[in-house]
Amino acid sequence: MKTKFRFLRMKHYCSYLVVLMFLSVCGMSASAQNASGQKIQVVPMPVKEKVNAGAFTLTSDVKIIIPDGNKEVETTAQLFSEQVSASTGLSLKKIGSAGTNGKSIRLILNKVQNNAIGTEGYVLNVKPSGITINANKPAGLFYGVQTLIQLLPSETGQGGKINSKSWNIPCTEITDYPRFGWRGLMLDVSRHFFTKEFVKRYIDQMAKYKMNVFHWHLTDNQGWRIEIKGLPELTRVGAWRVPRTGRFWTFEAPQPGEKATDGGYYTQEDIKEVVSYAQKRFVTIVPEVDVPGHSLAFIASYPEASCTHVKYAVNAGFPHGDEDLVLCVGNEDNFKKLETIFSEVAALFPGKYIHIGGDEANKDNWKKCPLCQKRMKDEGLKNEEQLQSYFIKRMEKILASKGKKLIGWDEILEGGLSPDATVMSWRGVEGGIAAAKEGHYAVMSPGQYCYINSMQGELNIEKVYAGGPTIRISDVYNYEPVPDGVDSKYILGGQGNLWGEFVTSPRLAEYMTWPRAFALSEIFWTPKEKKDWNSFVPRMEAQLKRFEKEKVNYAPSVYDPAIVPVKDKDGNMQLTFKTELNDLEVYYTFDCTFPDNFSAKYQQKPIDIPTGASEIWATTYRNGKPIGRLLVIGINELKGRLGK
Ligand code: ACM
Ligand code: ZN
Known about the structure:
By secondary structure, the protein is of the alpha/beta class.
């Protein structure tokens, strides 16, 4: 199991070999609509929605009415009017609740609590004469506004100004609230650094789809990205590595004397700016400082922090040899350093959780280290798993002294869980199940559904080799976060994780995230009973139109053909195709020419391979128009897949 999930993430250098091995073998239901056919297409699907006759027309004299003296609601109204103005050219005025004449969009904080909708829910009512959004708390008004934006024509995006349009919003009644309180996305900024501007853009996008936790993976073997004033070497040394281009797993080790010029970090002022940006969008940031493993950037900065004290450079790609990636648990000075780090981190991030990593700590050096062995003896610890648990418990005490709660990857279960820890389940769902059975909270992010660094389509099309196996958007959509037999009160929610080994650019980060994060947003927000792939598809596609206007990148993999070799009754290979959307047609050739809709059409039954054919080329069409990308794959490669 462990190896399999390491493969998914490929954080460990052994995965490098696995990558090479892998490469070498290598009708939709209607959205809610009214009698005149007006539709609404909202992601995530609201709890209750009804479309009525008629529409509200947005014009420049519409006012946004907000409660007096509430800063958060005022900010929500401001963000709304900025977005409307960028898209439509209309500048809506915000006014206090006293001036109520004329057509308005009214954001109302309930005086009498509506218990059905909790702290993040809202009731949205669109009538020709006006729009109201009611909520118990400002977060609910923010989410109501996000829904309202999705009711506007899909041209409405930050960059999509179209002045000639009528801005009609269908009359609607929506009551909505989330299934889970933790609806997250994780971005790894260690393997490749992303600027604060990009991080803000990423947070803005997730918030529009009602995701509310941004897990910021700030440290790892390939870079330390957060300024710690008490330990300046962490960013002076640890934030920089030698520049390399190409495939991450082929990156060469630093050469003697070579300058480390690639990287970057966030100053504490940058962090404050991002935190404030996120707060305005009701996104809580969970910072991660990954210890005691994944610590080479730390160790490169302070070599005395490892058991071996050897001076290494920050990794350019995967570890290049036998670098010691793990902090020494016997060295008391490390706990002083960690106290400094977590004090500064706690002061910067207002959320209650801090993520301490805790994953994939190689214990070999602990076995050989006199200080680690002495610690085990002094503390009566029987094995290195218990030494790890000792380390995590001390982290929990440090965090508790700053008023924070500890969350860590599921390895923190090994050797005994700290009293108040929350577990992030990644090596499948077992960590979440074990945590819940012990009465601890869990956040579900199992590798096989939630690792959005994995490819999302056929390798031969995708080319972005971002870790296998493929996790398609329909796989993500089918994930149910509460495991069978587990008390749902222990499942805080879940998140998608974008590990950054192969994510070299902001455009690629968006490509990997979207549209799969639409599926994540729906599985963490929408009631289980309302989940429906056929209803999701057109709603997802409506968002893709917005993304095109907003110039947000996304993967079109859902439109591609996927090929599946099968055996006939005599054991000969035949080929079948699958598509994630049921209204796609697949066309193919065996003569190494581009297929189009005059080529052979896949008839939903296995195809025989003509004698001598060496490749199959295939693509998809929808309603007579090309839509998918070209798949080219060798017959021998398919035979290799069949053998597995
Ligand atoms: C992980 O993927 N090592 C949490
Ligand atoms: Zn040690």
